[in-house]
Amino acid sequence: MATRTAEPPQLYRLNVGIMLLNKSGKVFAGTRRNGKDDHWQMPQGGIDVGEEPWQAAQREL
Predict the structure, then answer these.
(1) Tens-digit pLDDT string for the chain (61 aa)
(2) Which candidate, 21, 22, 18, 19, places its Cα nearest to that of 44?
(3) C-beta of residue 47 within 8 angstroms of C-beta of residue 16
(4) In this structure, what DSSP letter does residue 28 have?
(5) How far is CA 32 from CA 15, 36, 39, in A?
(6) Alpha helices, DSSP H only, in 1-61?
């Protein structure tokens, strides 16, 4: 009889990233405050358990 092995652990969390442009071609980005320096970043984040990618993208916006 075959035995089922455990699924290997995921090395990375599933995530989404959003590139949002307006009609003029301008890109939406925000600043992320990280210590002494600020960094520009597009909306992105992890997908929660039971969540669809489009739902995660909407939440991150």
Answers:
(1) 566 677 777 788 999 999 999 999 999 998 887 777 888 899 999 999 999 999 999 999 9
(2) 18
(3) yes
(4) P
(5) 18, 11, 5
(6) 53-60
